[in-house]
Design a protein that fits this description.
Distance between the termini: 66 Å
Largest sheet: 4 strands, mixed
Radius of gyration: 25 Å
Bound molecules: zinc ion
Strand order of the largest sheet: 1-4-5-2
Number of strands: 6
Strand content: 15-25%
Helix content: 10-25%
């Protein structure tokens, strides 16, 4: 089966979800209660665990089978944005500090050290001196 092509805004108009798994609207033509996650966030809201209720599609000239998509959430089901507690913020700060401390020299190096190869929790200075011991800066 050939892939569906989206060339005009009419290809993106399917409010009763007859051709798409979700109600589908062209860009800027969705009902006012259907908004994007960023629009919810701007109003201090979040989807509250609800899946997208609809989608907006916009044709792309150079990729007619891959229209630009925006998931739309029902603003009537949205809930207040959660705010982190002081204890959660403190935990995140402590975690970020722990990731900046080198396993070898125990210094806070000021950047997050990857635990994966090649650094494996070691700061760049320690890694350089261990892997290239004879190329130290003069
Ligand atoms: Zn180090």
């Amino acid at each position: 089966m050939p892939k569906r092509r989206y060339e005009t805004s009419l290809d993106c108009y399917d409010p009763n979800a007859e051709r798409h798994p979700l109600p589908t609207y062209p860009w800027k033509q969705a009902p006012l209660h259907l908004v994007t996650r960023r629009q919810l966030r701007e109003a201090g809201l979040c989807p509250g665990g609800h899946p997208p209720a609809a989608q907006c599609l916009r044709p792309r000239k150079r990729r007619p089978t891959q229209p630009l998509r925006a998931w739309l959430y029902d603003a009537r089901l949205a809930t207040e944005k959660r705010t982190p507690s002081p204890a959660q913020l403190a935990a995140v700060t402590a975690m970020n500090r722990a990731h900046r401390i080198c396993d070898t020299c125990r210094r806070d190096v000021g950047y997050r050290i990857p635990t994966t190869p090649p650094l494996r929790g070691e700061c760049l200075d320690c890694h350089e001196t261990r892997t290239h011991p004879h190329q130290e800066a003069a």
